[in-house]
UniProtKB/TrEMBL annotation:
Coiled coil: none
Family, per entry: Belongs to the universal ribosomal protein uS15 family.
InterPro entries found in the cross-reference section: Ribosomal_uS15 (IPR000589), Ribosomal_uS15_bac-type (IPR005290), uS15_NS1_RNA-bd_sf (IPR009068)
Organism: Lasthenia burkei
Main location: plastid
The organism's place on the tree of life at top rank: Eukaryota
Protein name: Small ribosomal subunit protein uS15c
GO function term, MF aspect, one: structural constituent of ribosome
Subcellular location: Plastid, Chloroplast
Native organism taxonomy: Eukaryota, Viridiplantae, Streptophyta, Embryophyta, Tracheophyta
Length: 92
């Protein structure tokens, strides 16, 4: 539960700037929150295949946004990865 409160603090920081809702960082944080909630839901409901599909779609969206951010501004990418405590994307 510590991680959930940490993410809610990050979201509150992002929500204070109403004009930043379209920023890549805000979108990645909100997708990460959705991913955490769906993951905990799927631990209880293992056969909920529609939620599994939704989780895969959100993971793909977040992955594309992180790839875009890493190409455009590597410093902001590294900072965001550190804040959210998620793994860096694999390079081919």
């Amino acid at each position: 539960m510590v991680k959930n409160s940490f993410f809610s603090i990050i979201l509150k920081e992002q929500e204070e700037n109403k004009e930043n809702r379209g920023s890549v960082e805000f979108q990645v944080v909100s997708f990460t929150n959705k991913i955490r909630r769906l993951t905990s839901h799927l631990e209880l409901h293992k056969k909920d295949f529609l939620s599994q599909r939704g989780l895969r779609k959100i993971l793909g969206k977040r992955q594309r946004l992180l790839a875009y951010l890493s190409k455009k501004n590597i410093a902001r990418y590294k900072e965001l990865i550190g804040k959210l405590d998620i793994r860096e994307r694999k390079t081919r």
